[in-house]
Amino acid sequence: MSTRNRLLVALALILALAACKGEKAKEEESFSFVPYPGSRYLPQLTDTFKQAHKVISPTEEPPPTAIYDTEAPVEQVAEYYAKSYGYSNVAPDATNNLSAAKPPAYFRGGDLATDAKAIVPVAEKMGLKIDVSKANGKYKAAEIAAKPNRPRVTVQRPYFDVSTSQTVDRTLILMSK
After folding, report:
1. How many whole angstroms separate alpha carbon 55 and alpha carbon 51?
2. Within 13 A of 91's CA, how many CA atoms are on the CB side?
3. Left (φ > 0), alpha (ψ -120 to 50) or beta: where does 165 sit?
4. 84 falls in which pLDDT band (50, 70, 90)?
5. How far apart are CA 89 and CA 104, in angstroms?
6. 106 has which bridge partners?
7. Maximum distance among all alpha carbons in the chain?
8. Residue 122, Cα to own-chain centre: how many angstroms?
9. CB within 8 Å of 35: residues ≥ 6 apart
10. 3-class DSSP state of 79
11. What is the pLDDT averaged over residues 5-13?
């Protein structure tokens, strides 16, 4: 192989690598959080979530995350995200009519007190003092599966705010890559 041909092959490899890096950068740039119309960003809860991730997985960088809340009902917010992601609807539960595969968008329920008690060990490691006795009641939630350039979305109402130790009767929107 002549020097000229080797140079052309090397140049082609460099251009191919540069193109791949450019595609990855474009993919990362195109990743975005789309807030529900009229929702408000919750910087303190977002930071607390990221700190908790560092406690649970100290060697991993927390994923891009954003937390919002809104007055809108959980069903309305879940439908908004399901439709914007191209999912036909939000299934009533994760069983998907007894199918082995979970639907990409589904509702679930839970108990605030049970969930709050489960986070106490992580909160203690973070130096947070939370009063879990104020976490009362059941909640309705929805899980929306991620798309290549969009985050996984969890929607829940009501929610327990660990920064204030209060149950908040608003719809929480947690988006995480």
Report:
1. 6
2. 17
3. left
4. very high
5. 9
6. 91, 143
7. 78
8. 19
9. 41, 66, 68, 173
10. helix
11. 42
